[in-house]
Amino acid sequence: MKITYKFVTGEIVEVEVPEEVGEVSIEIDREIRNSDRRETRRHNTLSVMEEKGFQFEDETNVEEQVDVNIRDEKLNQAIEKLLPKQKELVQKVFYEDTPIVEIAREEGVSEAAIRNRLKKIYTKLEKMLD
Predict the structure, then answer these.
(1) Does residue 56 lie in a domain region?
(2) pLDDT tens digit string along 9-36?
(3) All residues at 6 or more sequence positions from 12 whose CB lies less than 8 Å from its CB, including other chains
């Protein structure tokens, strides 16, 4: 029976061995593969997870991140309760980064009018978030 050895260097060598030794070698290899599979299934290192595409931020404060996520969710829910024109203005200003001057020009009003609308929206959102 021939046994194939694969070295770390990439070199592959085949060795002729008695049948009993070959069977034992195959059984040992199978046990090692099974053991490795069991262990990797239960335990994943960060480096292995990063290789699989997971991304981890350094020094992340989990509690702080949860607070931010909750605050963002509440804000999104409050924005959904705004009037359609108000939502549209929030979308343009904060998500599309459209300058207030451009919005005022599109709507045929002054910058002050747009700023006043935004103040009303801020007030409304503050009340909803309290």
Answers:
(1) no
(2) 888 888 888 888 888 888 888 888 887 7
(3) 4, 5, 6
Q: Identify any residues that bridge with 3 across adjacent strands, giving them in sequence order.
A: 15
Diameter over CA atoms, the chain: 93
Six token digits for residue 66: 């949860």
Residue 84 lies in a domain: yes
Number of structural domains in the chain:
2
CA nearest neighbour of 60 among 48, 46, 74: 46
What DSSP string runs through 86-126?
HHHHHIIIIIS---HHHHHHHHTS-HHHHHHHHHHHHHHHH
Q: What is the pTM of this model?
A: 0.51
